[in-house]
Specification:
Blueprint: E1 6-13, H1 16-26, E2 30-37, E3 40-49, E4 58-63, E5 77-84, H2 87-99, E6 104-107, E7 110-114, E8 120-125, E9 149-156, H3 163-169, E10 173-174, E11 179-183, E12 188-195, E13 208-215, H4 220-229, E14 238-239, E15 243-249, E16 255-263, H5 288-294
Parallel strand pairs: 1-4, 5-8, 9-12, 13-16
Antiparallel strand pairs: 1-13, 2-3, 3-4, 5-9, 6-7, 7-8, 10-11, 11-12, 14-15, 15-16
Bound molecules: zinc ion.
The site of zinc ion (ZN) has 5 residues, from strand 1 and strand 13.
């Protein structure tokens, strides 16, 4: 039983409209679900991804309107790493981001950038043959597009403390230099740990809330027991409507989720029209009028 890399990464934004502009227009991802936070339905939960809304390319944001930018510290993911196809793609993005006045910096075989609230991303040229997960965008040729997650980097005061849960519980493989990989039959994804900064972290806009690892539908019930055996304290299985989830904090302090790879975002929307209207899980439908009144309307980025 193996995890199929990263399912999604969830972060916080203080400004849904600016967030939508950055991820759907500038970075060329597809808004695949416009919904609300199921633990606080007065705020948006926006899901960006590839054309099909696949696990492996799904970056999501809880909106807390006006949230001040936070700062990643120990136990927090501080960088999201995406695959691109070539050095030409890095050059394409360096040029596109410069024109958009987005902070970006070339590194060896990589390009680092920050979203408007300071969330750091890194594009790396991949040598993986995992299927590329890309979105269609009129200004981003397919061969330049982001291809899904390669991994995340987190700050840890003691990465060795995470080894037992990662290797024995969750069947990650050491990937060198404080990194571990979860590789299944379809995809792989990495978590790498960096030394913590001196200043403590502060959750807020532009910080990552959690990272979710992908499980097949069949394996999902068994992962809770595996997490327990690895020493974690997982929640019960929570039905997120588009997938099933368990959550636990791993020993370095990063909030992990294990999410099932189905049923998927097209269970309640036509795949041609994902993300165009506000979608509520059935239990929130009776509250639709009240919920819509509290949310700032967001346009369809593809219009
Ligand atoms: Zn999640």
């Amino acid at each position: 039983m193996k995890l199929e890399g990263i399912h999604h990464v969830t972060a916080i934004t203080g400004d849904a409209q600016r967030n939508l502009d950055f991820y759907a227009r500038v970075l060329g991802l597809r808004l695949v679900k416009k919904t609300v936070n199921q633990d606080d339905p007065t705020v948006y939960h926006l899901f960006y991804g590839d054309e099909g809304g696949s696990p492996g390319a799904d970056l999501t944001f809880f909106e807390y309107p006006g949230a001040v930018p936070g700062r990643p510290g120990t136990g927090m993911v501080h960088r999201v790493v995406w695959r691109v196809g070539s050095d030409e793609a890095l050059a394409f993005w360096a040029d596109r981001l410069a024109k958009e006045d987005v902070w970006a910096e070339r590194a060896d075989g990589a390009l680092r950038l920050r979203d408007p609230e300071g969330l750091e991303h890194e594009l790396v040229v991949t040598d993986r043959d995992d299927p590329p997960l890309i979105a269609d965008h009129p200004e981003v040729p397919a061969e330049m597009a982001l291809q899904g997650f390669d991994g995340v980097r987190a700050y840890s005061a003691d990465p060795a403390a995470s080894r037992h849960l990662l290797e024995e519980g969750l069947d990650f493989t050491p990937a060198g230099d404080g990194a571990w990989e979860a590789r299944g039959e379809q995809r792989g994804g990495v978590i790498a740990y960096d030394a913590s900064p001196a200043e403590p972290g502060r959750p807020g806009g532009g910080t990552v809330h959690h990272v979710a690892w992908a499980s097949t539908m069949d394996d999902h019930p068994a992962w809770r027991k595996r997490a327990l055996q690895g020493g974690a304290h997982p929640t019960e299985v929570i039905d997120r409507f588009w997938f099933l989830s368990i959550y636990f904090v791993e020993p370095s302090g990063v909030l992990f989720e294990i999410a099932s790879m189905g049923p998927g975002f097209d269970v309640d929307e036509d795949p041609q029209h994902l993300g165009e209207r506000l979608v509520l899980p059935p239990r929130f439908e009776p509250m639709r009028e009240r919920i819509e009144a509290t949310l700032t309307p967001l346009g369809n980025p593809r219009e």
